[in-house]
Amino acid sequence: xxxxxxxxxxxxxxxxxxxxxxxxxxxxxxxxxxxxxxxxxxxxxxxxxxxxxxxxxxxxxxxxxxxxxxxxxxxxxxxxxxxxxxxxxxxxxxxxxxxxxxxxxxxxxxxxxxxxxxxxxxxxxxxxxxxxxxxxxxxxxxxxxxxxxxxxxxxxxxxxxxxxxxxxxxxxxxxxxxxxxxxxxxxxxxx
Length: 191
Ligand SMILES: Cc1cc2nc3c(=O)[nH]c(=O)nc-3n(C[C@H](O)[C@H](O)[C@H](O)COP(=O)(O)O)c2cc1C
Fold this sequence. Notes:
Elements: H1 12-23, E1 35-39, H2 42-63, H3 72-84, E2 90-97, H4 104-120, E3 124-125, H5 135-141, E4 148-150, E5 154-157, H6 171-174
Antiparallel strand pairs: 1-2, 2-4, 2-5, 3-5
Helix pairs in contact: 1-4, 2-3
The site of flavin mononucleotide has 11 residues, from helix 3.
């Protein structure tokens, strides 16, 4: 959900619920090394939004090219977020120790929990990573220590766009039964 209502704040109670859901997710060895920065200060959000906008402008050049073939609907929606990230009532930035990417498997289960908890409360989110083109600026804005990396920039707010069921490829194209290439699902008579 990339179109968010800038004028409708998210309650402290809802934020607590969403963050608690994120913290309940599994982490490798229960290490719980992820640190979640919940940004509500408008000055900081504006600065994050300005960084994200610069990244979007850079990314839009290749995303708009015919060889990339990005769905037009997604492009327009991503473009909206590119211009309005800083207006999201809340922006969450999860961080973890070490170089970028090393803790992904321990960070993203929490990110998914956060997004699902938000959705259950009627709040929209988007997992974004484009900001990483200028990650050092984000780290500076949020005082993130040198030895930590960021994993996402997640705007949260009430939706202005329409909720719709996610469009995904058919199961038969993506899932195999027992071995690579064999059909999974009702077409398989052995199940
Ligand atoms: C790892 C990852 C990075 C993403 N980064 C961005 C991003 O920087 N900006 C953005 O607008 N959407 C981003 N997305 C959202 C995807 O573009 C989106 O999930 C996809 O277009 C499908 O849209 P849907 O889930 O609404 O169907 C990202 C998603 C993932 C999983």
